[in-house]
């Protein structure tokens, strides 16, 4: 289902590094979402050009041995369900 | 949500909505959000205005440079989101500079406006400066009634402004304050959200402070009509969600028997800077006597947030008396609202009378259980205009002209 999907943040959603708390955030009207772990790095790869397999491949290259093939598509699906990715 | 194991390098987003800022006590509490009341001037005269009865004058307002400095300090303190509000923030000729300062400091900005006096050119400049979202007030779905409640012709301006906001590609929220003069129009108000292209509609039952407290008798709805409205919201919410429109219902705390977790706790998540630079835990707190609120002209925000007596006074739970002190809800509702406790009992450290456990709960119960008054012919006393000493700068004069009329 995600093979041809090229995820990109929804127009109202802004990814920003919070220098005070040392964490990535999603900022949108009336809401702040704190991103844990590498969630921000994953979302930075969502530029509307990469397909999900490209994103998985890039993360697998950066994090050898990590179970990114299972976890990243599921994570992106959850973020899309929230309406934050398109 | 479950968190993935660190070696995966992946990821799980955890909601830290401004209502759940994480475990207290592990690190200094830092504010997430700022309400910047840029001016108390406003073309509208809504009788439930959230501004204080004592409105700041134009000559007392912070300068552009003072706002720029305050926004930089706020960002250093941890603020990531700001509502630029008023009064009507469009009356500040330097609004673009203020937006740019916030955005430059890393703060996400939302404009909260009546929509009166916003043209395409100015909105374009605001968006270029980094404005991220606009919230537009609507008083009623019927144009004539909207204009009656707002105290001036404004419905057509709002409709036009909504279209401009969509055209600019900015997220649009509609803000509706509900009371007995518009509660029955709820379906039509909800229809405005898809018609005007809004992403969100906030239905805020009137909270009784300042002007709304003064006009409470004219504004308070009956329990029966409120129950109908709550059912309407439940019925329409799913339908609007399918159109990706979020419906927010701000509960009428007088009727529920529960104290609201006001501001997510005193000095816990956000703060307000008023037009003259006074820094408060919430916009209504100016009414609490002896608060001795500091200003950005005299102190830096770091000291004000962490050290000032104004902010430490009701932070946490140590200040509580019974029944709050031993109540299981004390970490959830924080004893309710200090401003409401003061407004209704004269004691800001009392349990919020909206709470059914409050010894003063009869003060609100008697009001809402009273037999419905006959249809009130009056809207209440219109909010006074704030006195303004100077005209707007020439470059903004054309667009602001209409908004200025009423001053």
TrEMBL record, chain A:
Q: What pathway is it annotated to?
A: Cofactor biosynthesis; pyrroloquinoline quinone biosynthesis
Which keywords belong to this entry? PQQ biosynthesis
Question: Which GO molecular function entries does the Swiss-Prot or TrEMBL record give?
Answer: quinone binding
Task: Show the InterPro entries listed in the entry.
Answer: PQQD (IPR008792), PqqD_bac (IPR022479), PqqD_sf (IPR041881)
Q: Which residues cross the membrane?
A: none
What is the superkingdom listed in this entry's lineage? Bacteria
Q: Which Pfam families match?
A: PqqD
In the record, biological process GO terms are: pyrroloquinoline quinone biosynthetic process
The answer, when asked if Cytoplasm is one of the entry's keywords, is no
User: What is known about its subunit structure?
Assistant: Monomer. Interacts with PqqE.
**Name listed for the protein in its UniProt record:** Pyrroloquinoline quinone biosynthesis protein PqqD
């Amino acid at each position: 289902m995600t093979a041809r999907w090229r995820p990109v943040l929804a127009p109202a959603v802004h990814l920003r590094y919070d220098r005070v708390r040392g964490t990535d955030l999603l900022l949108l009207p009336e809401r702040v979402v704190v991103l844990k772990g590498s969630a921000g790095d994953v979302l930075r790869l969502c530029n509307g050009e990469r397909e999900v397999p490209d994103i998985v491949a890039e993360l697998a290259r950066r994090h050898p041995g990590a179970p990114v093939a299972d976890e990243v598509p599921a994570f992106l699906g959850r973020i899309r369900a929230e309406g934050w990715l398109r | 949500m479950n968190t993935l194991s660190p070696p995966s390098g992946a990821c799980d987003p955890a909601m830290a909505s401004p209502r759940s800022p994480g475990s207290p006590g592990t690190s200094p509490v830092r504010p997430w959000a700022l309400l910047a009341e840029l001016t108390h001037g406003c073309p509208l005269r809504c009788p439930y205005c959230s501004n204080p009865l004592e409105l700041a004058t134009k000559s007392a307002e912070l300068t552009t440079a003072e706002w720029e400095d305050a926004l930089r300090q706020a960002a250093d303190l941890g603020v990531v989101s700001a509502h630029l509000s008023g009064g009507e923030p469009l009356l500040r000729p330097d609004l673009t500079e203020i937006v740019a300062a916030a955005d430059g400091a890393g703060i996400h900005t939302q404009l909260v406006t009546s929509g009166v006096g916003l043209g395409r050119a100015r909105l374009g400049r605001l968006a270029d400066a980094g404005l991220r979202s606009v919230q537009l007030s609507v008083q009623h779905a019927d144009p004539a009634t909207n204009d009656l409640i707002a105290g001036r012709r404004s419905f057509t301006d709002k409709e036009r402004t909504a279209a401009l906001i969509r055209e600019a590609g900015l997220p649009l929220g509609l803000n509706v304050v509900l009371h007995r003069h518009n509660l029955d129009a709820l379906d039509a108000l909800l229809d405005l959200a898809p018609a005007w292209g809004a992403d969100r509609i906030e239905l805020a039952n009137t909270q009784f402070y300042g002007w709304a407290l003064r006009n409470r008798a004219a504004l308070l709805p009956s329990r029966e009509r409120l129950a109908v409205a709550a059912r309407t919201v439940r019925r329409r919410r799913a339908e609007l969600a399918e159109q990706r429109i979020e419906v927010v219902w701000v509960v009428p705390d007088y009727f529920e028997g529960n104290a609201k977790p006001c501001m997510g706790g005193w000095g816990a998540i956000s703060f307000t800077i008023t037009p003259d630079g006074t820094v408060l835990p919430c916009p209504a707190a100016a009414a609490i006597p002896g608060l001795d609120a500091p200003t950005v002209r005299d102190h830096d925000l770091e000291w004000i947030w962490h050290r000032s007596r104004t902010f430490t006074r009701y932070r946490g739970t140590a200040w509580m008396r019974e029944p709050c002190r031993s109540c299981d809800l004390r970490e959830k509702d924080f004893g309710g609202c200090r401003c409401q406790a003061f407004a209704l009992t004269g004691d800001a450290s009392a349990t919020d009378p909206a709470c059914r456990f409050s010894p003063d709960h009869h003060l609100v119960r008697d009001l809402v259980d009273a037999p419905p008054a006959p249809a009130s012919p009056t809207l209440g006393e219109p909010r006074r205009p704030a006195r303004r000493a100077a005209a707007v700068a020439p470059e903004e004069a054309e667009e602001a002209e209409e908004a200025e009329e009423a001053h």
